[in-house]
Amino acid sequence: NARDAMPKGGKLDIDVTLQTTDDTIVRQNINAKIGKYVVTTVRDSGEGIPPEIRDRIFDPFFTTKAEGKGTGLGLATVFTIVKNHGGFINVYSEVGNGTSFKVYLPAHITADKIEVEEEQAIRRSGKQEVILVVDDEELIRTISRDILIENGYVVIIAQNGEEAAEIYREKHNEISMILTDVMMPIMNGIELIEIVQKINPDARIVAASGLMQGEIASKLAHAKVSGRLSKPFTADKLLAAVHQALQV
């Protein structure tokens, strides 16, 4: 699929990591459990998947390929195999900026005890700093808000960049940091960051996305955000990113 999405060539990245999921990820994925997973990520810089068909890509016999080029059973088969092995899949895509598939499979710890270095985030409580959380997905907004409030922060939420920009214009003197999704309708995260930085060049901003590559990575680098957060994220990674951004 990644190959077919890049008919004129492009970049294909595959990496494998060990990740410990927590309640944050479990609440976002119905088949997830708390524990260790081997995460295989396949990223391409291709055409991307239009939002209107993204929810159908795992449906059997659904395909956007021309006749004779595919049956629409490939992703459906992958989904079934992963689910039957106790795993789950996250998909992130933006038209023109590629697609990222993250396949989570439960890690089996062998008797040989192969040591794998894991990032251990240190939880640090907030001091009632005000965080503006911006995401078009209600579940992500709710989970992020709950985690931040439970750890000593005050949270304002916005459903898209346009709403967030209006809030920031009115309350920028009160807001300590912005946590924003990159890919959103109406006004995306990159556009929001540009507006915010015109109001306050020193604004502390953490950008969250399932696609941290290509044009998106380039734009975020140019925007000079305070931090980046790869989706899906655990509570520890969220808190670590917020804490680090506030120290900048």
Task: Give a verbal description of the structure.
The protein has helices at 23-28, 51-54, 74-84, 138-150, 161-171, 189-199, 214-223, 235-247, and strands spanning 12-21, 35-44, 88-94, 98-106, 130-134, 154-158, 177-181, 205-209, 227-230. It has 248 residues and is an alpha/beta fold. It has a five-stranded parallel beta sheet, sandwiched between helices. α4 (138-150) links the parallel β5 and β6 (154-158). α5 runs parallel beside α6. The longest helix has 13 residues, at 138-150. The chain is globular. The protein starts with 11 loop residues before the first strand and ends with a helix. Mean pLDDT is 87; it is low at 116-121.
Topology:
Blueprint: E1 12-21, H1 23-28, E2 35-44, H2 51-54, H3 74-84, E3 88-94, E4 98-106, E5 130-134, H4 138-150, E6 154-158, H5 161-171, E7 177-181, H6 189-199, E8 205-209, H7 214-223, E9 227-230, H8 235-247
Parallel strand pairs: 5-6, 5-7, 7-8, 8-9
Antiparallel strand pairs: 1-2, 2-4, 3-4
